[in-house]
Amino acid sequence: MGEEAIMVSSGEKAADDARSVPRKGIGSGPNILLIRAGALGDCLLMLPTLTALRTHFPQARIDVMGYPKRWEWVLGRGLVDAVHPIERPGMHLLFCEAIAAVEIPEPLQSFLGTYDVILSYRPDPDGVFQRSLQALGTGLVLSQPPFPPPPPPKVHVADFALRLVARLGVPAVPGTPRLRLTHAELALVQPFFTAHQVDPSKFPVVVVHPGSGSIAKRWPVENFATLIETLETQRWARTVVVTGYAEEDIEARLRLLIRSANPLVAANWPLLPTMALIGQATGFIGHDSGLTHLAAALGRPTMALFGPTDPEIWGPRGEHVTVVQMAREPVVDNGQARGRRAMRTGCRDVRQVLETVQGWLAVEPPRRSPNDRSAQW
Question: Do both 127 and 225 map to the same domain?
């Protein structure tokens, strides 16, 4: 078969990349590899980019390279065809300037050589990684850092990611893309609901994630305890506390602080059952974390507690997202700090959070399939 070309759009930078992207045959699309190794939230912030790519290249093969467990949410939704581990033998050699192409393992060369376009979101200040990919004889290689430069101006991470595919002539898709749960995914959490006699389509369920990758980003555990007790005793909502292996101390502290409520706990769950739980909840409360971005991507009412990170750059997006910037309150440390003034991250009270969540609960829960409550991208 002959090759059909997809031409890159005009514009000064796009013109520099205006080599045609060859297709493997008439009626097929290019093979595209997107390299993004990051945490769950970093991967979810690539959703607008993947949506734009798939919309512009509906017949393309689009693969992702990263940490597979952090990309599980993307499979089976028509956005990508496969997720490949970034820990492939020899990948580290591509960051070494002095390494010749002949030293790269042949399986890795063959793998990378199947792609017409490689989009790299790797830190590569000297361009070594990009040059190494190009030296292997792969197709068009475009690269940019994973995060925007320091403001001003402020650029949201998701918008910054779109700049790279714009060099292929790929426009952003209007609106905020959303994920839809499959029936198989919904079934993953059903045993949990059945065991606790909870029907999320008829009774309000609020999922709470009190952890975060950084202690500085966390709301005080005491505030979560107050919130959970208020929701369960005054609003008759069922709360589910989601914790991971690094948050066992938070779960223990909550158990000690909560006196008049009995929240359910989803401890150390894999990503897909956690996704099914959040996707069927009345609402979600969390920090600047991957699960908060997941809740927003599922279209659930989401309370995002932010601090010290900037939500204008890192915040989840969606019409059902409410961001609360946590106050930073000075406290006196009379311990080893010898009276020096320290900073404590936390809201001055829980009123704003509670009022928002109570607004969710005031809406009559829909009597329909939970899957209908998540929009499709």
Answer: no
- The residue written with tokens 């900073």 in the block is 343
**DSSP 8-state code for residue 174:** S
- The structure tokens listed for 367 are 């009597």
CA distance 266 to 33: 35
In this structure, the answer to whether residues 211 and 162 fall within a common structural domain is no
CA distances from 141 to 6, 34, 68, 147, 363 (A): 15, 10, 22, 18, 49
Residues 230, 97 share a domain: no
Any domain includes 175: no
Q: DSSP for 251-272, please give it.
A: HHHHHHH--S---EEEES--HH
> Residues 330-360: pLDDT tens digits?
544 444 444 444 445 455 668 889 999 988 8
Helices and strands, number each (H, E), in the chain: 13, 15
* CA pair distance 298, 300, nearest whole angstrom: 6
The token pair at 230 is 């208020």
For residue 281, the model assigns a pLDDT of 96
CATH number at residue 106: 3.40.50.2000
Query: Distance (Å, rounded) from C-alpha 26 to C-alpha 22?
Result: 10
Structural domain including 138 reads 5-166
Chain center to CA of 117: 23
Residues 160 and 193 in one domain: no
Would 370 be classed as within a structural domain? no
Number of domains into which the chain is organized: 2
| Cβ atoms of 180 and 77 closer than 8 Å | yes
Residue 314 lies in a domain: yes
Per residue in 132-145, pLDDT (tens digit) is 999 887 789 999 99
Q: Label residue 84 by pLDDT band (50, 70, 90).
A: very high
